[in-house]
């Protein structure tokens, strides 16, 4: 694994982030996705297939704000490239909302939203891609600027994957951007403010990753220690459609050489399942072995336990399928178990729990399984599965709904009990929908569950918006 240099920009040659000492910052940095600073997590719903101003697949993002009772569609913000203050204009195929991320980039006490539009055409370059920053405030999201792309001639589909965090351990929030082409991973140095020059960046071509697919997904968390943020990168192997996954610490100057192999998958989430002080990694691979040798019948999730140096090599990864004892259901071809994963402490016991989407279950109707953490790691006893046929879940399970294509665990009500939020982008022939199940001391409940689709948040149902194919919160 090596990082190949392209043209240097702003003396930020293509090495990982190296910054001077950080300046002093105001106290009270907001948690990600708390856009109005009220202490509750808000929800960003991507609909990259949305028609905007008659432009098919221009894309949109609905932001639904949290409240003491959870998500409220009556308090929302609709973002498109035709929204006042958003750079650019909605054009066919832009796919605005194909990726989202959040952090308090300028440390003003309000989280900001990053939105990727990998299909954006820039200066005649088809699918060059762009990333827009929308700023948080006491009244929610308003105002925006475009995140700089230092290598527009070498990075295509810029913004197809996003992550934000202190990647170089200097106290400022940086942004990682996945793309295709000669530069498939870029870092933009923080701090990032509403105006003024950007602070440089770095990027390069990870030659273990397919040039045509690039870096397709990113997740981040403190895997190596409490003070370092590590990245999990997903993509495809060159010449194949097979998944490839690595763990990297961008604060290390030669991180490309340090990158460690992880079980191959397409999505991941990071949190401490066994409460030992080291974050663990859940990697989802929904594919059958016929499509990906690292897959499994019906799909799988692999838990990689963390240790002082990152991955704990003394512990074997724990592989979970629907044939694992205690897991509801059975592994069947096409279930797509592991199509989405998210770690969070559902029952406030100090152990991170796991939500797993199986968007192909029952001919694509979809399902979500919840498994709980413990001192010995992820346990399968007490696992629960939810579908649209579960009592109290709105709607009816139908072929192609893809319930569970995305899952999220986040505290939208501020009661320290995360809700389970589920995206089903195939609902109603591709309109898509989102479900939210309230949190309790024992995990998600269907009592008081709600669902909403694109029309409830101002997104057009023309074409197939695929509302809920992207969730951020």
Molecular structure report:
The radius of gyration is 20 Å and the shape is globular. It is mostly beta strands and 473 residues long. Helices cover 3% and strands 36% of the residues. The longest helix is centred in the middle third of the chain and has 4 residues, at 255-258.
Name a few traits of the molecule:
473 residues; mainly beta; five-stranded antiparallel β-sheet; four-stranded antiparallel β-sheet; 3 helices
Q: What characterizes the major β-sheet?
A: 5 strands, antiparallel
Strand order of the largest sheet: 1-12-11-10-9
Globally, the shape reads globular
Radius of gyration: 20 Å
Number of helices: 3
Report the uncertain regions. Answer: 1-27
The counted number of beta strands is 33
Summarize the amount of helix as a percent range.
Answer: under 10%
Q: Overall pLDDT, averaged?
A: 92
Which band does the percent of strand residues land in? 35-45%
Protein structure class: mainly beta
Layout of helices and strands, plus pairs?
Blueprint: E1 3-4, E2 43-47, E3 60-65, E4 72-79, E5 99-103, E6 112-117, E7 130-134, E8 144-146, E9 156-165, E10 174-180, E11 185-188, E12 201-206, E13 215-225, E14 228-236, E15 243-248, H1 255-258, E16 260-261, E17 267-271, E18 280-285, E19 300-304, E20 306-307, E21 310-311, E22 318-320, E23 337-344, E24 353-358, H2 361-364, E25 367-372, E26 379-386, E27 406-410, E28 419-424, H3 427-430, E29 433-437, E30 439-440, E31 443-444, E32 450-452, E33 470-472
Antiparallel strand pairs: 1-12, 2-3, 2-33, 3-4, 5-6, 6-7, 7-8, 9-10, 10-11, 11-12, 13-14, 14-15, 15-16, 17-18, 18-19, 19-22, 20-21, 23-24, 24-25, 25-26, 27-28, 28-29, 29-32, 30-31
């Amino acid at each position: 694994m090596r990082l190949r240099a392209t043209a240097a920009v702003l003396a930020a040659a293509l090495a990982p982030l190296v910054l001077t000492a950080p300046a002093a910052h105001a106290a009270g940095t907001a948690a990600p996705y708390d856009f109005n600073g009220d202490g509750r997590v808000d929800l960003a719903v991507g609909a990259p297939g949305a028609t905007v101003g008659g432009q098919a697949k221009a894309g949109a993002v609905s932001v639904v704000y949290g409240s003491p009772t959870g998500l409220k569609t009556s308090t929302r913000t609709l973002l498109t490239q035709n929204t006042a203050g958003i750079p650019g204009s909605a054009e066919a195929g832009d796919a605005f909302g194909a990726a989202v991320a959040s952090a308090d980039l300028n440390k003003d006490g309000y989280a900001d939203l990053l939105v990727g539009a990998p299909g954006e055409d820039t200066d005649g370059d088809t699918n060059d891609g762009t990333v827009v920053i929308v700023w948080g405030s006491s009244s929610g999201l308003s105002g925006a600027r475009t995140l700089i792309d230092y290598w527009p001639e070498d990075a295509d589909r810029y913004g197809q994957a996003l992550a934000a965090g202190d990647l170089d351990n200097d106290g400022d929030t940086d942004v990682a951007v996945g793309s295709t082409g000669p530069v498939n991973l870029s870092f933009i140095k923080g701090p990032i403010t509403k105006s003024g020059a950007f602070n440089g960046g770095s990027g390069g071509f990870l030659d273990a990753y397919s040039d045509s697919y690039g870096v397709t997904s990113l997740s981040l968390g403190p895997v190596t220690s409490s003070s370092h943020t590590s990245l999990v990168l997903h993509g495809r192997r060159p010449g194949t459609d097979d998944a490839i996954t690595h763990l990297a610490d961008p604060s290390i100057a030669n991180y490309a050489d340090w990158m460690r192999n992880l079980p191959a998958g397409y999505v991941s989430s990071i949190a401490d399942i066994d409460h030992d002080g080291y974050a663990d990694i859940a990697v989802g691979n929904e594919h059958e072995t016929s499509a990906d040798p690292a897959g499994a019948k019906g799909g799988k999730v692999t838990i990689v336990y963390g240790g002082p140096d990152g991955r704990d090599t003394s512990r074997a990864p724990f592989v979970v399928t629907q044939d694992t004892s205690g897991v509801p259901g059975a592994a069947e071809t096409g279930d797509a178990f592991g199509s989405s994963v998210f770690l969070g402490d559902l029952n406030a016991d100090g152990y991170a729990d796991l939500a797993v989407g199986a968007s192909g279950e029952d001919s694509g109707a979809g399902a979500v399984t919840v498994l709980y953490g413990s001192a010995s790691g992820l346990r399968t006893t007490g696992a629960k599965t939810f579908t649209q046929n579960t009592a109290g879940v709105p709607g009816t399970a139908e072929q192609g709904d893809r319930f569970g294509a995305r899952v999220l665990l986040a505290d939208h009500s501020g009661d320290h009990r995360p809700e389970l939020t589920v995206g089903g982008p195939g609902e109603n022939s591709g309109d898509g929908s989102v479900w939210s199940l309230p949190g309790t001391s024992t995990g998600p409940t269907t009592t008081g569950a709600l669902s909403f689709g694109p029309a409830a948040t101002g997104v057009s149902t023309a074409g197939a918006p695929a509302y809920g194919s992207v969730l951020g919160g």
